[in-house]
Amino acid sequence: MRNQIQQLKEKLGAIFQADNQLGILYLFGSQLDGDIHAGSDFDFGVFSLESDPLQRFYHGLRVQDTIEKVLPNDKIDVKILNDITTTELQFQIIQGEVLFERESYRILIEPKIRMHHEDFMYGLKKYGLTKAI
Length: 133
Hints:
50% helix, Beta Polymerase, domain 2, 4 strands
């Protein structure tokens, strides 16, 4: 699996180097965790440098189209990290594997997401909203 991720990193890194609006590309979910089954898709998280939400949406579609040309799989799911409002999904994405990174955008976004996730988990524990943790 590690070898496949490295190959994917090299292929996509070379392609996305020309995409000036892509800050970070993550692989996360079942393909990374090794929990692969017949319905498994490839989950990607994108931190886009587009400031306009509509342009970010279109950018996400272009990223998905590019990935579909590289992967021999039509089950591709791309999430735009900038527009996700659930702390849990944001945290799950940044726990994934970074396939492409421009400059140091991880330093700007990941600490904020981690802090929000810690606050969220603290609230769940404090108010007894879950027994799983």
